Amino acid sequence: MSATALDALRVPDELSARVPAEQRGSGRDDVRLLVSRGADVTHRTFRDLPCLLRAGDVLVVNTSATLPAAVAGRLGDESGGEPVVVHFSTRGDDGRWAVELRAPAADGTTGPRPGGPAGAVVRLPGGARAVCEEPLDPAGTRLWWARVLGAPGGGRPVDVPGLLRGYGRPIRYGYTARDQALGAYQTVFALPEPDGSGSAEMPSAGRPFTAETVAALVRRGVQFAPLTLHTGVASAEAHEPPYPERFAVPGTTARLVNAARAGGGAVVAVGTTAVRALESAADGRGVVRAAAGWTDLVVTPRRGVRAVDGLLTGLHEPRASHLLMLEAVAGRDALVRAYGEALNERYLWHEFGDVHLLLR
After folding, report:
1. Residue 97 burial (CB < 10 Å; 0-12/13-18/19+)?
2. Which residues, in sequence order, are CB contacts of 37 under 8 Å at separation 6+?
3. Cis previous bond, 117, omega within 30
4. Side by side, which strands form the sheet with 58-62?
5. Which are the contacts of 4, defined by CB distance < 8 A and separation ≥ 6?
């Protein structure tokens, strides 16, 4: 498969993982593992991960919990109005939320629709209202900043995490077969935040890990370095670069990563979210320092990676911006070879599918 062919690659519908592995008759850690070391590609299962890493290697994991970020509503202040599903993406520093308005479909999924316009009101359960104010990106119309308020007349801000806990469900796209309980979208690393913050979409590269796999890795001498990046929505139809997201890299993680690199160990990020956060805290020489705030970093082959030696990730759509990050880690030729193998061997795509380990 040529580099041009990768750009034009089409993933057949039957290779979309429609339900979690547990509902396909296996365990989370029974999914297949595609392993790329340069042009060398091998086929394993996820339970083999401990034997692919060495004592002194570090796995960098995202501890962000997945929110039930989809809430049904209706446009307009009065009864009736167009039904919509609001995807709550990111909480801004001023208390507003970046939201995406979606059109509900008969099968329980949603489809794209324009956001806004400015002043549009979405009535939500419990008497809450989302008032659209301005697009997040002046060049686009998909995500809008909205203020979430109480019943008309009060106008008081609403506890959105509480609203989501009471009325939300996990974001679901058309390639999945049915709604799933929130637990299907949580990783073993997920930790609740005191303010209820979390990810609109699951940091899915961590999904195959189980307590047993973690224990086997620890026995192997592999260390875990936690960080947090709260993911926003990344609608399957959009294929946009990631928007700014909140992240935090603690000092303990910075020290673990720096010590591993100094000692010859490999630093393997679990997911593109972990790469984005860690690289946002690294200087030009790859030295990581404690950092927190917002990151707008987009990792590309030209920019490269400085603190990461490998990446564990899912299989991404051909037009997804994440492929640029994979290319930055492993190189274009390795990526082309791996995706050709994944198609030939009928690996499963998306958050409930198989995973890919790229090592430099």
Report:
1. buried
2. 359
3. yes
4. 40-45, 32-37, 355-359, 310-314, 267-270, 58-62, 223-230, 245-249, 291-295
5. none
3-class secondary-structure state, position 65: coil
The structure tokens 């060495």 sit at: 54
Beta-carbon-side half-sphere exposure of residue 208 (alpha carbons within 13 Å):
26
Sign, CA dihedral 279-280-281-287, equals positive
Structure confidence by residue, pLDDT tens digits, 77-122: 777 789 999 999 999 999 999 999 999 998 888 998 888 899 999 9
Residue 49 in tokens: 């991960």
pLDDT tens track for 157-215: 899 999 999 999 999 988 999 999 999 999 999 999 999 999 999 999 999 999 999 99
- When pLDDT is cut at 50, 70 and 90, the band that residue 235 belongs to is low
In one-letter notation, the amino acid at residue 119 is: G
And the tokens for 132? 């659209």
What is this structure's pTM? 0.94
* Beta-sheet pairing, 83-91 with 70-75: antiparallel
